[in-house]
Amino acid sequence: MNLWKSNSLMFLFGFGIGAGVMFLLDPERGRHRRAVLREKAVETLEEIETKAAETASGVVKRARGLAVEARRAL
Amino acid sequence: MNARGTSLLLGGLGLGAGLMYLFDPDRGRRRRARVRDRAVGALHDLEQSAGKTARDLAHRGQGLLAHARAVFEPEQAVEPDVLEQRVRSEIGRVVSHPGSIDVTCYDGNVVLTGLILQEEIHPLLDAVRRVKGVKSTTDWLCEVPGAEHISALQGGVPRTGRRFELLQENWSPATRLLAGVAGGLLAAWGARRRDLTSLASATAGVALLARAWTNTDLRRLLGVGRYAAPIALQKTLRIDAPVADLFEFWRNPENYPRVFAHVREVKKVGENLYHWSVAGPAGSHVGWEGTITRLVPNELLEFRSVAGSLVENAGVVRLDPNYDGSTRLHIRMSYRPPAGLVGHWIAELFGADPKSALDDDLARLKSLFERGKTRAHGETVTRQQLQPQLKKAAAAGPMDLMAST
Predict the structure, then answer these.
(1) Given a cut of 60, is residue B395 above it in pLDDT?
(2) What's the rounded Cα separation, in Å, for the pair B351 and B280?
(3) A14 in contact with B, Cβ within 8 Å
(4) Which residues contact B273 (CB under 8 A, 6 or more apart)?
(5) B364 Cα to chain A: minimum distance (Å)
(6) Above 90 in pLDDT, residue B288?
(7) What does pLDDT average to over chain A?
(8) ipTM, 2 dp
(9) Which one of A21, A22, A25 makes the best mutation probe of the B interface by having the most chain B beta carbons within 10 Å?
């Protein structure tokens, strides 16, 4: 049963990889798709970077605020 | 991972890639339609071939039966017109100009009259004497040593007489079927075992199968020596530009790579000697050296690769003026792929299709001359960009301008 399950998973895994690779390496549309994917990846990375920077600066500001409040209380 | 797992993974990979190719969201519908069309075309071809083979087998069967009957039945007198047809059929196998010979038959005697080349007389008389039903021959033929000044003996193809079917260039449908089945069985038998004899038999089987399937000589298939089959391409198109402008473009091969996307580079390496580099299969580049062998201003340009090139090729570009001032461009070229027809098919499999490449590049040329610009190698090229180079080439003097014949 386990062997059957692992073989089925292997087939599905190969099927997915094959379909994905053909989608991206399509002789006619592949170049365009790879370019779109690259752009989206770069965009997402930039968004993550911006968000991370915002979050970091927020955390730093809040920490400073907390530190000031603590100093006042003491 | 077990062996079954690996094969399932690879099977899934292939199936996934194939299905994605056929069900692609952008191009899938067109691809499926093309596959369907090709399948229908292949079915029609198969139907036609099966019909031909069946008829051929039936005719051959009838012939064998008639031969077998003739062995056992007593010999009967043959009708003169039947005998004449038998003799004429045999003449066609041994004489280069069968039309110049007249045949008259009566009571099993054959009278031959007309013109014949000296060296063909003995093969002809031997062949006629062997025809079933011929009792005697009368030779009233006029022998001539050569065909000069005799209109009846012009042209013609030298004949080799009867040859064993398998040694002929074209195999009959029945022979192809029998040889194909034999080759397939031999290959299957050889593939099941793992020794040298089996390998030899499998190779012979595959060769026989390929010979029968393609009906092409093996030496031509593999491109051995002078038997290598050239691939011919041609295209005619109308370009709305004067002949002189187009000729100026063609006579300077160094300009081709700027317009033709499949030509990577053409470099002048000597007096009337150019090094060509063009797109080959799977992103590779194929190179050779070639010369312009004939140049007739505003009319014709012929080119040829130098002897010993990897891809031997030759071609001609002809320019004819139309009544409206446009030009009819006719290009004809042929090349020998390195490994014969097999090499050509492999190259096609890896994306090199010279016919489409020629069509694409000539469409770019048409666009350049009619709309003033085109795109090649990812760049836009305008006529103005090419024009100074063309003028420079024209000013370079006689260069390769050879109006030789």
Answers:
(1) no
(2) 8
(3) yes
(4) B289, B290, B291, B306
(5) 19
(6) no
(7) 91
(8) 0.75
(9) A22
Distances, alpha carbon B174 to alpha carbons B52, B177, B180, B215, B319, in Å: 9, 5, 10, 12, 46
Q: How far is CA B259 from CA A40, B121, B266, B355, in A?
A: 34, 59, 12, 17
Instruction: Kindly state whether B9 is in contact with chain A, defined as any CB-CB distance less than 8 angstroms.
Output: yes
Most confident stretch, B283-292, B319-328, B394-403: B319-328
Q: Report DSSP letters for B184-252, one per residue.
A: HHHHHHHHTS-SHHHHHHHHHHHHHHHHHHHTS-HHHHHT-GGGPPPEEEEEEEEESS-HHHHHHHHT-
Cβ-in-10-Å burial (0-12, 13-18, 19+) of B323 comes to exposed
**B153/B144 Cα distance (integer angstroms):** 10
| Residue B119 in contact with partner chain A when CB distance is under 8 A | no
Interface touch B12/A10, C-beta < 8 Å:
yes
Give the confidence band of A6 by pLDDT, cuts at 50, 70, 90.
confident
What's the CA gap between B285 and B254, in Å, rounded?
A: 17
Nearest CA to CA, how far is A45 from chain B (Å)? 27
Chain-centre distance for alpha carbon A9: 24
Q: pLDDT above 90 covers what percent of chain B?
A: 41
Query: Inter-chain contact A23–B24, Cβ cutoff 8 Å?
Result: yes
Distance of CA B52 to the CA centre of its chain: 22
Model confidence pLDDT, tens digit, residues B142-161:
998 888 888 888 888 888 77
- What's the pLDDT tens digit per position in B93-120? 999 999 999 999 998 899 999 999 998 9
Strand bridging mode B136-144 / B327-336: unpaired
Q: What distance in Å separates the CA atoms of residue B262 and residue B277, rounded to the nearest whole number?
A: 9
Predicted pLDDT at A72: 92
Q: Quickly state the pLDDT bin for B396 (edges 50, 70, 90).
A: very low
Which B residues, 312 through 351, put their C-beta within 8 Å of a C-beta on chain A?
Answer: 351
pLDDT at B399: 42
Confirm if B186 and B212 have CB atoms less than 8 A apart.
no
DSSP string over B294-333 = EEETTTEEEEEEPTT-SSEEEEEEEEEE-TTS-EEEEEEE
Measured CA angle at B256 (ends B253, B260), to 5 deg: 155
Residue B292: CB partners within 8 Å, gap ≥ 6?
B251, B253, B272, B274, B301, B302, B303, B400, B402
- Digit-coded pLDDT (tens) for B374-389: 887 777 888 777 755 5
